[in-house]
Design goal:
The chain is built from five helices and six strands. With 150 residues, the chain is of the alpha/beta class. It has one domain: Response regulator (Rossmann fold). The protein has a six-stranded mixed β-sheet with strand order 1-3-2-4-5-6, sandwiched between helices. β4, α3 and β5 form a beta-alpha-beta unit.
Length: 150
């Protein structure tokens, strides 16, 4: 497990991204790129370790390489589907689009081989969408307007 943060905004105001990938090089490149953009990152090299870290750190987004190990898709498909108790965590799934589309209906798939630039833009886009959704929800709660789920 590795956690990486850089000087900048207060930690509580920063988005947290969990990267689960068996490739140390891929984890390091993505972690460095995201940290430079002010994101707090956590990494795991196996599916079970990633699940444990997700419970502990409650990330705002997960990047999951479906080739991380044979149990990755099975281990993560339930937790990523969400339990209906709030907004599901956005997930960027690397590889295995065709065989995993049904397991992860809400996931954003990025086919392999991928380029880091478009992957990072996708992550930033999903985090911004999540930030806006949370802001709208909080605004409605403060104004007394009903908040609709979904």
């Amino acid at each position: 497990m590795q956690t990486h943060t850089m000087e900048g905004p207060a930690l509580e105001n920063r988005h947290r991204v969990l990267i689960v990938d068996q490739s140390e090089e891929s984890r390091e490149v993505l972690q460095t790129a995201l940290s430079r953009r002010g994101l707090s990152t956590y990494t795991a090299d196996a599916a079970e370790q990633g699940l444990s870290m997700a419970r502990q750190h409650q990330p705002d987004l997960v990047v999951l390489d479906l080739d991380v190990d044979e149990t990755a898709a099975d281990a993560w498909s339930g937790p990523l589907a969400g339990d209906g108790s709030g907004d599901p965590v956005p997930v960027v799934l690397l590889g295995g689009v065709r065989r995993n589309r049904e397991r992860f209906p809400g996931g954003e798939f990025v086919a392999k081989p991928y380029h880091y630039g478009p992957l990072i833009r996708k992550i930033e886009e999903l985090l911004e969408d999540r930030r806006r959704a949370v802001a709208v929800c909080h605004s409605r709660e403060r104004s007394g307007s009903p908040v609709r789920a979904g």
